[in-house]
Amino acid sequence: MSFDLLRMQPHPNRQSEEEVMVLIKKGSKRAKDDSVDMTQFKIQVYLLDVIKKKADGFQVVSFSSSPKFDVVADHAERSVTFTLGEMGELLPVELRGGGLGSYIMSELVKWAKSSVPDYGVVPVKAFAPPDEGSEAMQRNKAFLAKMGFALQNSGTGSQVGLFGVTSKAGALKVHTNTQKLERVDLPGWLNDLASVRATMGNQMEEDIVNTRFLKEELQRQKDSDKGRLSFWAGLFLGLVVGAVASAFLSAA
């Protein structure tokens, strides 16, 4: 099992123009008994919480999905099957077009080329995600070609369509767009993340202390004015307490 940490650069396909940190988990396992002999190489994508620095502080943005992709080598049949045909549909829409699909498929291809280069490749059907149109289909076809697949129409019945085919796993190609993806040092990034969270925590503690001090001052003013608290002092106290509460909820 191994991990890669990637930074996705902002691009038009994503709803947010912020950078997104993606943790890639890779691992393989083999199942072998009297009836089956297969090895699966799987990739799982974790979209990490993103800490965005804003003019008024920090904001934590969370992603919930963690799509999985794999390639399965059938040692009895001497064949490999990729999840490439579903790549566009499985990736969340905000991640499409950012180079992540090419990176994932390249990692799957690397494993197949090094582990089972002489195995045949099960044809991969080319289709656009259901929420996209003809332009997405053209991107899918170009993507297949870059990975070393030849395109041909085949199939029968409901399975008829355009497929990417190749003779052997070893003939496939690797394609990663380094302008859209940047490999990040995982230990260093975790240290930076811890520092940012610590800074947020220290800032909150300081705000809370200042709020308590202000509250005590206003209470003394209230007592000296025989129970009369000025409108502006009360409004200011409410704004400060609200700001501290908002910062606390954002960091939680």
Detailed description of the structure:
The chain has helices at 87-90, 100-115, 134-146, 186-224, 231-251; strands spanning 2-8, 20-32, 37-47, 50-54, 57-61, 68-74, 79-82, 120-121, 124-125, 150-154, 161-165, 181-184. With 252 residues, the protein is of the alpha+beta class. The chain folds into 2 domains: 2-184, no CATH class; 188-251. It has a 7-stranded mixed sheet with strand order 8-7-6-3-2-1-12. Helix 4 runs antiparallel to helix 5 (231-251). Mean pLDDT is 70; it is low at 228-252.
Count of helical regions: 5
In total, how many beta strands? 12
Could you give the order of the helices and strands? EEEEEEEHHEEHEEEHH
Low-confidence stretches: 228-252
| Multimerization state | single chain
Terminus-to-terminus distance: 30 Å
What is the helix content? 25-40%
The biggest sheet, with number of strands, parallel, antiparallel or mixed sense and barrel status, is: 7 strands, mixed
How many structural domains can be distinguished in the coordinates?
A: 2
Which structural class matches the secondary elements?
Answer: alpha+beta
Give the neighbour order of strands across the main sheet. Answer: 8-7-6-3-2-1-12
Shape: globular
**Mean pLDDT reading:** 70
